Amino acid sequence: MRKLAFGFLIVMAWTACKPGSDNKMPLPIFGSRKPVSKIVDGKTVVDTIYQTIPNFKFVNQYGDSITNKDLDGNIYVADFFFTTCPSICPIMARNMLKVYDTFKSNGNFKILSHTIDPKHDSVPVLKKYADKLGVTGNTWWFVQGKKEETYDIAEKNYLVAVKKDSTAAGGYVHAGYFVLVDKQKRIRGAYDGTDPKQVDQLIEDIKTLQAEPDETIVQ
Amino acid sequence: MIYKVIGTLLFFFSVLLIVSCENEHSLEFKRYYSQGAEVYQTHCQNCHGANGQGLSALIPPLNDSVYLKNNKAALACYIRSGLKGVIVVNGKNFDDAMPANELSPMQIAQVLTYVTNSFGNKLGTINDDQVSSSLSVCK
Description:
Order of helices and strands of chain B: HHHHHEEHH
Low-confidence stretches of chain B: none
Number of strands of chain A: 9
Radius of gyration of chain A: 21 Å
Number of helices of chain A: 6
Distance between the termini of chain A: 60 Å
Largest interface: A-B, 13 and 10 residues
Strand content of chain B: under 5%
Helix content of chain B: 40-55%
Distance between the termini of chain B: 69 Å
Structural class of chain A: alpha/beta
Shape of chain A: globular
Strand content of chain A: 15-25%
Oligomer: heterodimer
Order of helices and strands of chain A: HEEEEEHEHEHHEEH
Strand order of the largest sheet of chain B: 1-2
Shape of chain B: elongated
Number of strands of chain B: 2
Largest sheet of chain A: 5 strands, mixed
Strand order of the largest sheet of chain A: 7-6-5-8-9
Largest sheet of chain B: 2 strands, antiparallel
Helix content of chain A: 25-40%
């Protein structure tokens, strides 16, 4: 009996250790989805349409207008901040710098930091902030637009992954999330930008996404 | 065997002696320093970082011992009322504002003792009497 139990334990331990290490789990896809039937080669197949980031138009720290088209074919991380925020923003900036330094020399990667205080954070203010952080080039864009539009896209689009997990009403915009968006503009993760461990996870997940085979762009 | 035991005992006694010989001064320092670490985590760390490293050219680091020494008397005022205008730390200009903090003179003394004796600094204890007199002449 004892031998049997021992053998069982060994088998348990062996199977428990088996999966994982080699093949990484694909990242989840957040947001709403709907199935669509279409006919391919005479057969009806069901495809899934996922929620994607809709059209937007903002202005970056160089005064260039940035639309969703400028992010086509890029994996990107979005967050929401303001330059005069004394509480969580410095930690977020410190952590985002780590993401920036890891991927700034990779192509097809961007960071999109939206100011939620466009009245103060004008284009020159954003430029100065980027300069002081040591951010150059076109990997990390600090963007501003109409306050309502920024809040709208934050709550209805970027932070859907957060809303699902959170019971608190409102205030997500200020909660310091880093949102990971894939090349098909689908949300693949949300991370607490104030927590270095979660930011390390984000860096790992970006690498996982980069290794994902390119699918056909979702319409 | 017996020598080993005696040797070990002697060693522990001498350690005990050294520890208990610490004077009142260093006990006071330790109290300020450990309390100051907590004040730092709550009120300063978000911006200045866990290792006092600051943030690029936005937030100055806290490891410029010369700056801290030269401005020792004014540091309490900076914490209490905030700081505006250009300062030079480690040879670099910083011109963003630091917000004011509602801290008691004792808390300011604790956090100053922590900061001025961490991150490579070694300026000794700054006690609450020194802070109170510094605060009384803030500009």
